[in-house]
């Protein structure tokens, strides 16, 4: 059994560095995309405070398809032209939105969500998908949160075999 140790009193940079080390241990010796995505979504929900959704959307042509997640029932397909996730996929840039209700084209899968952090997953120059984190608290995600979660994505990419999802 894998147990996550979290000390939320630490400065965020130290907090995320310690979690990154634990994530690497969790993903060690497992290469499957779906398994690692499910583990990362659950790991984030268990270790990062004040979230109401953590999960993946995978890129298929010009839309995102729901992948492993933890949270309420979610939107199953998101076009690149809509929502915070679509913007992250379309631009391949992180979207950190302090108030989703002020984001033009926001898709409200969960009416309790107030802020969102979406990080594109790019492997070998190709968009594979996005990691989407939602919070019921406005202004929940700081630059330190973004940088910490981006390090989680790097660990996820390093640990995961993407060849079947990329047509290799």
From TrEMBL:
<dbReference type="InterPro" id="IPR029016">
    <property type="entry name" value="GAF-like_dom_sf"/>
</dbReference>
<protein>
    <submittedName>
        <fullName>GAF domain-containing protein</fullName>
    </submittedName>
</protein>
<comment type="similarity">
    <text>Belongs to the free Met sulfoxide reductase family.</text>
</comment>
<feature type="domain" description="GAF">
    <location>
        <begin position="39"/>
        <end position="151"/>
    </location>
</feature>
<dbReference type="InterPro" id="IPR051330">
    <property type="entry name" value="Phosphatase_reg/MetRdx"/>
</dbReference>
<dbReference type="InterPro" id="IPR003018">
    <property type="entry name" value="GAF"/>
</dbReference>
<dbReference type="InterPro" id="IPR000614">
    <property type="entry name" value="FRMsr_CS"/>
</dbReference>
<dbReference type="Pfam" id="PF13185">
    <property type="entry name" value="GAF_2"/>
</dbReference>
